[in-house]
Amino acid sequence: MGNNETGRAGEDVVCDFLADRGWTVLARNWRYSGGGLRGELDVIARAPDGMLAIVEVKTRSGTAFGTGFDAVTPRKVAQLRALTSRWLAETEGAFAQVRIDVASVFTPPGGPVTLEYRAGVA
Predict the structure, then answer these.
(1) In this predicted model, what pLDDT tens digit does every residue of 83-96 receive, in sequence order?
(2) What does pTM read for this prediction?
(3) What is the pLDDT of residue 109?
(4) E-assigned strands of the chain?
(5) CA angle 82, 117, 77 (to 5 degrees)
(6) Domains delineated in the chain
(7) Strand pairing partners for 114?
(8) Four-CA torsion 4, 104, 122, 41, nearest 10 degrees
(9) How far apart are CA 119 and CA 99, in angstroms?
(10) DSSP string, 50-78
(11) Per residue in 58-77, pLDDT tens?
């Protein structure tokens, strides 16, 4: 499985996880490029209580590069915040609370898929 397929599979796992808990996925793979800002928001979802979560999904099939959480650096968090502001500016929905979550999905060859989810990392 290539990197894009692995990433898509991880996002599918996360979207199913959220849907099973009553969340509504509003967008996937939202991309922006302009004004010196460029990037993608993997999953944008609304909780049953109205909380908006921007979910950064990191999928790994091995441990050579650490866990998915290891890849979410302060620089990445700053980019996610800026992209979130941009998405909110372009969206008509009103959200009282917004947070950034990280989901680490592990898909070892021949092994079970595991998901670890951390809410409110930023």
Answers:
(1) 999 999 999 777 88
(2) 0.91
(3) 86
(4) 24-34, 37-46, 52-60, 98-106, 114-118
(5) 20
(6) 3-118 (3.40.1350.10)
(7) 106
(8) 20
(9) 8
(10) S-EEEEEEEEESSSTT--GGGG--HHHHH
(11) 998 887 778 889 889 999 99
